[in-house]
Prior knowledge:
heterodimer; A: 7-stranded mixed β-sheet; 5-stranded mixed β-sheet; elongated; B: mainly alpha; 17 helices
Amino acid sequence: MSAYWILLLLISYRDISATTFDATTPTMVSNITYTSAVMSVVLKGENQTENVQLLNRVRLELDCTWAANENKQPNITGYWTRDGDEIEDSRLTVPLQNEQYNLKRVFNIEHEEDLRKYSCVFGSQAQIQFILTVPGIDHVPDKPIVSYIGDYVALVCKIKDTAPKPDTWRWYKSNETDKVRTDVLAEPGRYEIKNEDLKTTLVVYNLTKEDSGVYHCGAVYPLKTSVGELTLNVLSFMEPLKILFAIVAEVIILVAAILLFEKWQSKKKPREENGMNPLPTDEMMQEESNSLGESSALRQRNV
Amino acid sequence: MPPAASNLDYTPPDGGWGWAVVLGAFISIGFSYAFPKSLTVFFKEIQAYFTVSYSEIAWLSSVMLASMYAAGPISSILVNRYGSRPVVMVGGLMVSSAMVLSAFGTTIMHLYLCVGVIGGFGLAFNLQPSLTIIGTYFQVKRPIANGLAMTGSPVVLFTLAPLNQFLFDTFGWRGSFLILGSIILNCCVAGSLMRPVNKKLKPRPETEPLECNGEASEKAEAQPANCSLPEEEPNESSCWSCAQKFIDLSLFKHRGFMIYLVGNVVMFFGFFAPIVFLAPYAKDKGIDEYSAAFLLSIFALVDMFVRPATGLLGNTKWVRPRIQYFFSFAVSFNGVCHLLCPLANSYAGLVVYAVFFGIAFGMVCALLFEVLMDLVGPQRFSSAVGLVTIIECAPVLLGPPIAGALVDRFGEYKYMYYASGVLMVVPGIFFFIMHYFNYKKLDEEERQRQADAMQMKTSAIESLNEP
């Protein structure tokens, strides 16, 4: 199964409501000129998936070709599916031409709902699946971003380098219940949104505990808005401080223990050395008393 | 017996409390080398927080490493003056307070100053004294002690990398810096273990006149009494003799030291770049991110076990007398590994390369300071290592960026590996040749000294026998 990205560049179309376009409600616009695109794929093997990246409304023709296997039946039934369900009136009898079977169909991709997985199926054996999407948010961290009360935090969303830039960016914040998404708009001193072509940064100042939660960044494309989720966790400084104090206490205890042990060891050694000193003095005193005794004895004898 | 090591006037314990000192050195050296590398986990978020480019944030590690190397001579001077223990404890306090201060930083300059400069100085005050004190406690078992102490670096890195990731996930970068500040305070515990060695132990019996290496050494009290000094030049400038009191600049006239310095400066250009580019090279070959990171883990794991093994090997009676050749072999082996790396085309090939590179890197690191001690002796080691680190500062810092420039210029990694390989094989061969001559010279000098000693003894006996 091979998958590769294909970008269809939008050229020109008229869409009156481009700036106020809301991703969730489809606009009803008439007289638009569609861009057309053709995607031709030759099936190798029995199953293949192609990722198709779209930005704009397009008249997309999907063209599947399948080289016949050993059976080489003159006719085979082919049909199209959307998300696994067969599309009505799409079943055809496909003739064998130049050792190949070919299925073609045109899809009008106008709204977000049209971005689905479409497949062309040959008989019951071979199929090519086309996954239609808009460019997605790149590498959003799945772990919460941590910051502290009173501090600020920068939440970043990026589109892949190779993808075209979105029309605009949007930020939302979820409630605890996760049902209501409220827009996050720039507010001096509180929220700042820095938008670049492929990147958006939401800076939240003066954080409080309530700022914890899920933030959604949206890359707005005409067809659909790509959304990424970021979780923010706001902590109070006391939490790391507690650990800091605990480790500092451990260090002080260990250092004191090691130094005291050393003092105790060094006191033991001189005590052992001093223990030997009294003996010589005793002996000296004994010698002195002996000598005195002898001299007195001598004196006695002499006298 | 190692050639230049015999000018101690006491017998090093070679055990006992020495092993506790090795543990302290293990912790200190581990933090010194591993700490700057482990901070890379925080870079992405700090980069987003301060809105700076990746190269600006990568400078943080470089500034820390540069300060650590540049503060080498200052560290040496302090160790010469006060001994190892106070310097390590002050160093631990410095890094700790630097990290705590930086947790409250408001600009990237704060981080450069606190973590980079002050932190780097603090780490330097941990590194030099740890290496020096091993030389005072060990003589016979010194290669093992050095090998064990240097194992601190991969072990601490192995522990810090996932720990830092965990701290970052739980506390963000500010909280993590706070907690890391307290963890690194354990360097003070390591310092408290570094009891100054008891020099009142039984003195070695004087079998031969003690060797005097070069000119005056900086510690007057260690000057053996019966050493015949060459006359000091009376016309030395006061600047030189002033500096001489603090740090032994006469080392620049020491043959072994100069060989070591020249070889090392060239070697360090190609030493660290292959590690930095191992994961990107693997990804470039089409290997996924986790397997590429796993290569580094293999490398670190092999490194961890090779260092003490090298120490043990260096201590054997076959290797110890000619340990310089062992070091030369290790350096050349490193170079050969890098030269052969571009041949590895699959993941299995890269794994083999990572294993051999781990072995080579571990061998060089374990012996790096042991051979310096072997060349200049434990007394002058402190000054020697200070001078060496400040001079090595340039190649250590410039190596990876130059390698990166090579990669950008040619668009391929293999030329960088060839360059690194050459930059290591050439010093390796240089070491082999120069040390061959050095050993010959040292053996000659030894023979000469023994002949002089015999002459002195016979003349002394004759003078006694005369009525």
